[in-house]
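Task card 7
Instruction: Convert sequence to structure tokens.
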Amino acid sequence: MNINAASAEMNGFVRVVERGSFAAAADDLGVTASALSKLVTRIEDRLGVRLLTRTTRRLALTAEGDLFLARSRDILASIEAAEAEVTAASRLPRGHLRISVGTALAKQILGPALPDFLAKYPDISVELHVSDHQVDLVAEQVDVAIRSGALGDSTLVARKLGDATRVICASPLYLKQHGSPRVPADLLQHNCLTLPGPAWSQWPFHTHEGINRLAVSGTFTSDNADLLLDMAVAGLGIARLADFMVARAIQQGTLVPLLGDSHIPETFAIHALTVPGRHRAPRIKAFIDFVVAQFSHPA
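Output:
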């Protein structure tokens, strides 16, 4: 079997697994479901092992199938990378790039930087999905997801983009009307703007006894951090937000940082996540390298 036929078989098998059905994978590849089913059977016959367990409701990988999937992804990514390296001198990375990012990162960092990326790589098209909900990169066919916070257990390839911290702040208008909190306990008399859930309304501070998490409250809660930023700038109350969100407003004087001597900023990491094997694809590598530079040298 020549390399083109082998890579085509691997690509078909990988797509079937990623999409979870022959029909969905067939739609992606422009072939029939029966053709893909025969392709997988042909691979199994040649290898002498069962790769997929087929039921009326779903497909499940066998242990041999899981190994073949991992190796196939690596080989396909290596082929793409090798072809790109050979032609790198004559052309830039190209192709379609599907990106998933949270709302705050999209608005404050990625959105303003994308025009420069697209100008630098005119042969790359971008499809940007903005949501604070975690996505399944394989099921949603996402090339890169940018997420903040703890990664947890994951088989995804993660590249750290940078660190962020949290800042307590309010607008000069709010502080003029309600006064500035001098010590953490003063926040109990203020309108505090929070994300939903007790974890987001318990703000940490250094005390003589150690770390104290103060339970704050207010008249406005939202699962969208950008709305909290807008409300804070408008003078509704005091917010605790990521530094990359409030940096511009603080620089412009529309927000003022508070309680910096006792507040615990809780540093958290921001990562770019990709499916194993795909991180070496030229268009994906170019994008991640570009975003790393944005965090290293923010506008």
